[in-house]
Amino acid sequence: MNRVVSLKKGSSLGDLVKDEQPRPDDDLRTRLHAMETKIRRMKEQRNSFNEDARRAADSRNALQEQSKEIRESIKDKLLLYYKKDIGKRPPVVHQAIITEISPRGFFIELVQTLARGFVPIRTLPRELGYRVSSNGTALVGRNPKIKLKLGQEIGVSIDKVFVSDKQLDFRLS
Q: Which residues pair with 147 in a beta bridge?
């Protein structure tokens, strides 16, 4: 579609452009350009957020690794500390809380140091005949009044220390 435009006498080409009406596709171009600019800004912002999240994750991972190393160091020192209690007469009695019961024995946590360990059922007095209760929350002796329940505080002494496995075995005192 070719249009022939004639200039009036005394008018310039600039006046012709000013008088001409804006075309509808010019408005669309302007809006499209604004949208593209906004999308570009959003992509830059997203990339910035991704970098910040990556830095935060790296920092978190470093802290977790550091705390893991500290926990391992504490475990090692506790093992060496309790290893010296083996064979002492009379045995050193530690207060502990029963945290979990299994068919092979029960897990305890020492009150003083929060060290965790295991009391095998084979170390319990045979004449009491301990067995796991039906709901799994206690070890019950032949006499139902004799129970070792979850959360119960008991006295234990060190039976074995497995330094290589980082495990402690206790026996009821």
A: 140
